[in-house]
Structures are given as C-alpha cells and as structure tokens.
Amino acid sequence: MLLDPSVPDATTSPEAHWSLDLSGEWRCALDPDGVGELEQWFRRALPAEAPTVALPGSIQHQGLGDPVGVDTPWTGSIVDRSYFTDERYAPYREPGNVAVPFWLQPRVYYRGAAWFQREVEVPAGWEQRDVVLALERVHWESTVWLDDRRVGTERSLTTAHRFDLGRLSPGRHLLTVRVDNRAVVDVGPNAHSVSDHTQGNWNGIVGALSLTAEPEVTIRRVRVVPDVAARSALVKVDVAAGRGGAGVGSVRVSARRSNVSGEVPGEHEAGPVHATFAAEHSRDLGERGLTAGGTHVDVLLPLGDDALTWDEFGPALYELTVELVTDVHGTEHRHVARTVFGLREVGVEETQVTVNGRRTFIRGTLESCVFPLTGYPPTDVGSWRRIIEVCRAHGLNLLRFHSWCPPEAAFVAADEAGFYVQVEGPVWANQGAALGEGRPVDAFLFDETRRILDAYGNHPSFIMMAHGNEPGGRDAEFLASWVATWRAYDPRRLYTSGAGWPAIVENDFDNIPDPRAHRWGEGLESRLNGRPPETESDYAEWVRARPRPIVSHEIGQWCAYPDFAETSRYTGLMRPKNFGIFADFLSQAGMADQAEAFLHASGRLQVLCYKEDIEAALRTEGFGGFHLLGLSDFPGQGTALVGVLNPFWESKGYCTPEEFARFCGPTVPLARLPRRVWSADEEIRFEVQVAHFGPTPLDADVRWHLRDTTGTEVGSGTVARGAHIPVGNGTRLGPVVVPAELAPSPARLTLTVTVEDAAGALFENDWDLWVYPGGAAEPPAGLLVTSEIDAAVASAADGGTVLLELGPEDIGNDVALGFTPAFWNTAWTEGQAPHTLGVLHDPAHPVFRHFPTEGFTDWQWWELLHGAKAMLLDELPPQLRPLVQPIDTWFEARRLGVLFEAKVGRGRIMVSSLNLDASGRGAARQFRTSLFEYLGSADFAPAGLIEPSALRSVLR
To answer: What is the residue-wise DSSP string for 426-443?
Structure first.
C-alpha cells in the first residue's frame, strides 16, 4: 500500500509539504567490535574524518569493509571444503590473491555494525504532528537515535523499517541509524535474504529514506478484496487515531482504471493512461469507533458490469484512493492513501490452479536475489520490468522469490505486466536452523508474514506464498498452523507450507521436488540418464495420488560450462574470482582454447534437457506447473551454472527466447513419441497433445511436418481440422502414422507440430528424430577389433589397424559419465553423478560421415553414453585431442575422452570407451557402421604418435 503523506492539512496552505527525502550523503563509522552503543556514539557527531557514504546504498558497494581472506566469516554453508586444504587451491589462499570457488566474491567484506549519521532540518509547522522515519529496505537490524534519545529497533528483512520520532521542535536535529548485518535471528545460513551465496551479506539502507509528518488521524492500512462475480471490491480501511481522543469523520474511496502505456525512450518507464471509468463511495465513521486507538470501516465499491479482470492476458489495474477526513475536538485532519488492485481471484479446481475461474499452468523460475553489480536488490520499477520482460519472452508466467521477499517495485512491475509471483518469507530454516522447536525464528516468521501481507497484499500479481524454502525441525506441525493462520488472515492468494516440503493437508498446493526428470541423489539412475529417450513420460501417478495441485519444485538444475567472457560484466561489487580459478584449471590442463566450445556444447545439451523436463510437466493432464532452477545462473552453492541466461538475465549465446518459448508458453503442441531412434523401414507412430492455457478455448487446425537438415519437407499431414481445444492439457489427437522410407537414411529429421487457430495465430514445437538403415555393422578387412590392450599394442606395433574397445570394467577412474550434464554442481552435491557436461566433437570429421551429429550431445548419443566410461588422457601428448571428448566439471577440468585415434609403432589404433553394443540398439549399430567405414578408409590417418605405456595409462 502506498501512503501519500504529501496531502496538506485543510488548516494549512496548499504549499505545505509533509515529507523530507533523506537520500544523499551520510557520515559513516564502522563498529566491528560493537562498542558504539557503550561509548554512546549517538550523543555526538561522528568524527570529521569519518567517511561519507551515499544512501540509499550499501557500505561494501562504496568500498568500506575488509579485504577478503581465507578466514572471512562468510554467511552461508560451504559443502566442499577442499578449498581450505587442497594444494590445487593453495595459490588462491595467498594473502593479496585470495579467491574463493564457491560463490561470487565481494571487493570488500564486512559483517558487524555500521553507524550512519546526518543532521536534519525539521520545518516550521511540523511541531503539531508526529514525525515518522521510514527506511525502505534495511539489511538487517536498525536502531535509531534522534539527538541523544533512543527511538527504537526494527529488524524486518522484507518491509520498510518505520520509527515514530514523536513531535519534534522545528530546527536542526542529529539523526543516527545503526545497522547491524549479523544474524539477528537464525533464519538459516543459506536463506537468500541474508546469504553470501546470492546477494551477499550487505550492510546499508536502500530504497526510499524519508521523514514524514503525519496528521493526528491516519489511515493505517487499506486492504482491497475483489469480487470478480459481483464486479466489485470490498475496501477495508483501518484508521489509527493519535492522542487527540474521540472524533467524527468520513472515508471516501475512489478508483479509476489504468492501463500501462508504452515505454518512454531512455527512461524505460511506463505511464498510466486513465480511462473514463471512475467509481467512488464514502462512509461516515461516526463517533462509535474513533477513539485514541482508532477504528475501521468497510466500503463496498461497485466497479461496473464492464469492469475488467486482471491476469496474465489482460492485466487491468485499478488505482484506488482513500481519503480520510476527521474532526477531532474542532480540528480537521486529512490523510490520503493510494494503492493499486486488480479484479482478480485465485483458486483451485481439482488439481490445477485457477485465476478468475480459468485453469492456469504455473510456468515459473526462481529469483534468488542475485544482483552482482550492487550486491543488493533494486528498488526501481524499471529494473524489475526488464527481468519480467525477459522471463515472459521465454514463455514463463511466474517468478518465485526463493527465501526472500522483493521490494515494492517488483510487485508494481509484475502488476503492470500481468506476471505472477510466489513470495516467501526470508527463511531457509535448514543446515542448522529449524522451525517448530521454539527458537526465535518461529515468532520472526509469523511477524514477517504479517508484514509482507500488510505491505504487498493488494498487488494482484501476488498469487502464491510459501513460508520459505525446504525447512527442517518440526516443520509439518508448525507450518500447518502457519498456513491456516495466514489463509484466514488474507485469503486473496494460495498458500503452501514451504517450497520443497512438507506436503500437508492444509496446503492449497504442494510445491514438491519429486515429479521432475532428475531428483537429488538419483545420479545415473534418473530418467534421462537411465532410460532410453522418448517423449511419453509424465507424472500422472502423482496427480492421481494428490488431491491438490502440484507445482514441481526446482526442476532442471542442468549445468553448462562457465562463460569466461562473462567476467567483463562484473564492474560492481561482486567479482567472479571463481571463474578465474576455473579458467586457470582449464589452462593448466591444456584446454584453454576449448572454453567457448565447451560452453556451446554443454549449453545445447542443457537446453535439450530443459525442453524434455518442461514438456513432461506439460504432458501431465491436471498438473499444476513447475518452478525452473533456473532460467538464469545461480552464482553460489559451489557455483551452479544452471541457466540459459547469466546472472544479469542476459543470453549466453546458445539459446534464444524464441526457441525456449516454443516448448514453454501458454499454448504448446506436444508429440508423444515412444522413442527418438527409428529404422528406415519402420512407420513412425506418435500421438499429438496440446497443452493450452491461453485466455479462451481454440478451434484450430493441427498439422505435422517432417523435414531434413536442409529444411526440405519430406513428409506432412493433417492431424485434425477445426479441432476444439479447451483450456487445459487433456487434448489428445491421433495417432499419427508417418510412412516408412520417406527420406534417405541415415538422417536426422525434425518433426514439427503446428496448431493454427481461426484467427491465424500459430503455435509450433519440434523434436529431432534419427532414422537409420537396418543391417549389422561389419568390420573392414584387416581390422583387429579387441578389448585386450596387450593384443592391441602388439598388432599396432607390427603395423596393424586396431579398434580397441574398452568397457567400464577396464577403466579405473572415478569419473561418472552420464548423458545429461551435471546436476546443480558437483561441489554442492558432494560429487553426485554425472560429473560431465556432455561430449564435444567435430561433426565434419569423417568418422561421423554416416552418423549425423551436430557437435554436441543429442538424443542419438544416449545409447553410446549409457554404460560408457570416460578415459583420463592426461598422460597422452597434449596435442592429442580426442574425436569425442566428454566435458569435465569445471572443478576438475580433466582431459577426458571416449574416442581417440593415434599411431602406435608402425600401426594405427582407434580407442573407444563408448558403449558400442549394437544388439537391438539402432544408434549404437549405426555409429559402429560409421566407425568401421572410417577405419577402413584412407581418411584414417592419425597424426599423433603415442607410446604403449601412455596408451596403458587410460586404463587406470
């Protein structure tokens, strides 16, 4: 709710102003030993030599703090502590060269108290009003003195700190604010509200800083409860009366509809365009309740039969003004409050979320308070508009704020855009913290929840809330009460106990981690690693087992290689010294020139996995939705490079928003394919499904197209004409039968399904398929195929041509080779498999002449990688580059290979640790065919010579 204190009292001139902006220069003194209160620093001006800082801002961003050292007291868990002992990290522990691998590193670090002080000039005419100091966002605890009087302490991480300074004499006063960023309450060391994993444990004040002279009687809170069916809103006004006693008065409520106009060049600010609609209503307070404590009044505001609703497709906003006029002992007082609201109701229909009665599929990603330039969240609307525009361009409709609550500006931007938000309390009570055990965090969470709902509850974008993330302790028992309490207090949104767990009966929806393609600890047994590729899997059994909507918790977590070119973007507080370490490791392994190729190849595999993860959710009829982890990179927890975007919400160059939105959006065509690899003599059979969560049902033509790599269409057909597609994802059409022998094989073909409605709107999605000829692969004459290294060495030494096939039992390293890229990252997961990020290869190399590929891991590689083992090549000549190279995790940067060629003695050898078992496996059979063709040709002419001892080193 936005209070407007600038409206003058009726007894004063219209030119009077009742608010002072306190932004600007403040003197600052650090108090690491906590002696300032004991020494009463507030009684006198801070020393002249004390530095000045600009507020709003943080001290660290302005260079105040200590150099980062090995013993820096970070806020956040460090799972892999090898940094402190491993000799590899010894150079990065040296004074003056300290660099940590587990998160972004601030230029300076400070944890403790900081004192901010300035003089304020109280205007004449303010002496009959109470003066309030408001600090929009403080990290973390603030204590205020005016002159030598202690005013009080606030400790909210989510809403403004407000201090009633009382009635002040006109003239100059000394205002002192002490901010302490140490843990006031144990909300969990990894909570994104406080942790060095993301925003950093900053100290300061950001957003609006103001002094306001308030009238005797004020509007304390306005809550707007929309009624979509009645096209009205119940405006609930709480009035606070000061020391003047009883009185009479009236409340006038008015609203007008506003729509957001286009951007203003340069400013990127949108201005409201007011329509002709206006509604107002008033209510007398009477003498019944206006006592020294205040009163409340409810005003029903009709909006008209043509009132517009608010949602992701039509975000109609209403600007509400509440004017309070009171007479207390013959003196008139006026106060005005302004807020926005939307005619919006969120609910549940069976197992899906509804917005204004229409089924909605949640397509969310996390915002974890990652702002590397400042180290603290922006409080301007423009910054949040940009983030939301990026998310929407990728087909998303929700931001989940993981264990923190954003500033007012984020809600404003989301309201304008019709974008949904899930807000959480500033709590991740785990890793030592816990809920429901009588610790201070229990009361703090309830206090913070009330503050969040009171401050931001009118915003229509605020449709979901969780207490925080992944709790520990007596969480189910405690959070059952939390859900029930706040649903009763403010039923305008859906509540769930926590992001991750527990799934309790009190929840409106369950935000759980089980229905996703890869879960914690599954490793190489996860669906995408352990089962052949297909596009039929869904989570129907989870929907049947739950009476509430399920929104999958943190799906994806697929890593890409670091983008070392990104480091130039870090021009503010945070520095990517972790990237410097990883670049050094890569250079030491002789692979620095491959960094960009590693990024692209791993990134394309990442996109491939996100596509299947999202489509599995969309295929599940009655499913509630998902939260990605994530669309953008997460810089902490060991360095989790899980986004197709970097921490600045910018592209990393291997995926466009348009590509992502093909499989992630309000309307997505889906193909249910039993497999990805087919024989040329087989018909390709599949079923079409449409996940349609647009504004209205569709009547559409549905078609399929099959194209080769040149874009030439080799087949097409109509699935349905004029098909009625209701809102939901239960529409299935087909089966579709694609005739055999449509194109020469082997080939990579792209299946595209289009949905075109009567108005010409086109939705399309696509899937790559591989079609191979039948027949067994035969080795060329003179080729020795063996799994015995001694026989291979002996034959090559005599001038023979050898294919050495090594199985996982032959290779003794601990590299876990998977199909998917690493999950989250190997440091935070304590080495969970897989350890690799796909394979890199040159698709133009003749070994792939009969095995179409694009240089990165695609679905046809699954058979070759499943059950395979990577070889360590660090004892081979550095100039030897494998033909197929697994990309190792950036923490290790080992030279790996699964296929390489070399000269041994007078002969030639190809060494493979791929799974080349061709029995019933079309892709493996075809690769074996292509490999044999190459080994029998003149193209097989390895340039590098290796010694037998070096060859044997790959077995360790």
So the answer is: S----BTB-BSSS-HHHH
Looking at the fold, whether 152 and 36 belong to one and the same domain comes out as: yes
Gap between the Cα atoms of 399 and 390, Å rounded: 11
pLDDT at 261: 39
DSSP assignment letter at 846:
G
Residue 947 carries which DSSP code? -
870: DSSP letter: P
The reply to whether 221 and 206 lie within a common domain is: no
| Domain end call among 615, 637, 662 | 662
Instruction: Please check whether residues 360 and 445 belong to one and the same domain.
Output: yes
Structure tokens of 653? 């160059």
Pair (204, 279) in one structural domain: no
| 490 and 534, same domain (yes or no) | yes
> Given this model, what pLDDT does residue 301 score?
93
Mean pLDDT of the 688-704 span: 98
pLDDT tens string 560-612: 999 999 999 999 999 999 999 999 999 999 999 999 999 999 999 999 999 99
Domain count, the chain: 4
Whether residues 303 and 415 fall in one domain: no
Task: Using alpha carbons, select from 61, 64, 75 the residue that is nearest to residue 27.
Answer: 64
Kindly report the length of the chain: 956
- Domain of residue 197 covers 2-210
Which of 568, 571, 691, 567 has the alpha carbon at shortest distance from 626? 691
Query: Are the C-beta atoms of 526 and 616 separated by less than 8 Å?
Result: no
User: What phi and psi values does residue 616 have, to the nearest 5 degrees?
Assistant: -60, -40
**Strand, coil or helix: what is 892?**
coil
Last residue of a domain, one of 210, 237, 271: 210
Q: Which of 655, 951, 936 is nearest to 783 (CA)?
A: 936
Q: How far is CA 269 from CA 316, 381, 653, in A?
A: 18, 8, 28
Q: At what angle do helices 408-417 and 381-393 cross, to 10 degrees?
A: 40
**What's the CATH number where 616 sits?**
3.20.20.80
Residue 862 C-alpha from the chain's centroid: 28
Largest CA distance in the chain: 114
Q: pLDDT tens digits, residue range 358-404?
A: 999 999 999 999 999 999 999 999 999 999 999 999 999 999 999 99
**Angle, CA 643 vertex, CA 640 and CA 644 arms, to 5°:** 145
Three-state DSSP at 165 gives strand
Side chain identity, residue 86: D
